[in-house]
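Hello K.,

You asked for the raw outputs rather than the summary table, so here they are, unedited. I folded two proteins back to back in the same session to keep the settings identical. This is the first:
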Amino acid sequence: MRVWPIVLSLALSGCGGCGSGSGAPSTGTPVPVTPAPVEATAGAIRLVVGGDSRDDKAHVVPWAFQQAKARGAAAFIFLGDMELTPELDRSFARELALLDPVPFYPVLGNHEIEQIGFLPIGQREAEKALARRFLGTPRSPVHSALPERVVYSADLPGGVHFVALDNVSQRGFGPEQLAWLGRDLAAAHDNPATRHILVGMHKPLAHNGVATHGMDHDGSQAVSDSEAALALMMASHVELILASHVHEYAAFEQSGIRSYITGGLGAPLTRSGPEHAFHHFLLLEVVEPAIRVQVIRFDGPPSVAPEGDDEDE
């Protein structure tokens, strides 16, 4: 795989209200923002990325799906939390008709396997049900690399290799998933057809320097797994790390890898200021030498979390 320098970073400096660190050394570096939008590039492959649409009172999801089609997206990457509870995921699936024929690549969120985000309902069964409902279909033409899990990789147009990880059904990633990740990233890096590697997950990695509401919250094993996964990504020159779970937008570098938190597809927004808390999705343009990222804001009225609401527990 050719390694390309970074040519664009739309980023924000900090994330007030997300948490400012856990006492552990930070591997994240907020990047100064350049708020001007990126102009569309003629002929570029476009990918849409977003997450956290549960309790979507503002109707951001149908807008995002229609925007993805209108902008000629080659794929829609969804970073988890379709609905408030797993039983409601079927209603999200009905909205997916608005996206057709754009392929849909889901990542497992905590609301896919927990009641109201924190009461377990048989996590393995819930993950198996989600995998059966969404994977291996014309809309999501992928199969899990691990039995009855939502863990996979896909080669997308433009030489993009996308990896979907699960860091919600256990504390961290687990040894089996880390071993698979190492093999998958190494194979993608060595493949001459791979020009860009993207890794998506629901919870942000630990020590990102922006938000502690992620793998930092899940204990020492999760933090250790996060560090191990980041080392594998660095070794294989991953270009972008994509996560949601925090209901806002932030951009930063983690150990030199461009990273984004994009939790703005309709879930109640956190109270961290207008520069972070807004409904949105990310538009990725696959150009050379590096993927260009544009933040597409939702113009409708926002859904804001009540005071004291812990956004995604």
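The second followed immediately with the same parameters:
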Amino acid sequence: MESNLKRCLSYVIPCYCSAKTISSVVDEIDLTMRKMSSHFDYEIVLVNDGSPDNTDVIISNLARAKKYITSVNLARNFGQHAALMAGLKQTRGDIVVCLDDDGQTPADEVNKLIDKLDEGYDVVYASYPNKQHSTFRNLGSRLNGKMLVSMLNKPKDLYVSSYFVARRYVIDEMLRYENCYPYIMGLVLRTTKRICNVPVNHRDRKEGESGYSLGKLLNLWLNGFTSFSIKPLRMALYFGMVSAVLGFLFLVYIVINYFLNRGTPLGWSSTTAIILIMSGVILVVLGLIGEYVGRIFMCTNSTPQYVVREVIKGNDKDE
């Protein structure tokens, strides 16, 4: 017998410079949920990640106007993943839906992800057969995917995007991570392996441009492999061992060559090249170790994931 109890969906949307788009995203969610009202209640959590425009005013007004909307204004820009963690903290739903603020991720296709979740998966990511991002952003996504495979053991056939649904227990487990530098994909991958994809449409961006610059993408990848993997340290160890073996073999070659070809001068250029190469290797390894140690220091120093300036929950009356 099918239960008459409605499940609750929690939508979490990190917002950055989305004053012109977030209202239409909320409207699309409202329209979609009216069609699904017999099965679900819902709430929407909007997180302003230190936007320089008036996004904070827009989402605050939405929260005051609609009882099921919560607006969270962060004290400064902490990044998309920290903003997501701040939003997840406010949710109460049985299923959590994370999507973008620019309208490119189709909220009206959320039922496809939920149906797949009901097949026994814990997390379902949207995949895009025809992705509408810029060439630079697509390249960044591909590099990020390869990094996840090599560093975090992501299945090669799994596409990871910012549009996904997850069960409550997965979200609760993710929220146990309280250190700085959160990385959503790493938190998901270390929680469950029951993850899959569902293809959905990907729309053109209507306003503005992606907030991910090259620097932000590099910082995101750095967060991923230094916060949730020690493989870079192991790679540095193996690289150092290989370099030492090659250096020893080269030394043997120089000695043998000297005795076989007596009087052959030892080349200063090859010596200089070896010194430069080994010095570069040492500096890279030291820098990598320093990055890990620095992050350990930041965590022990209780550096926050995010700082909330204001939370406004929807009013107690109907629209």
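The CA atoms of residues 94 and 145 lie 28 Å apart.

Happy to rerun anything if the numbers look odd on your end.

Regards,
P.
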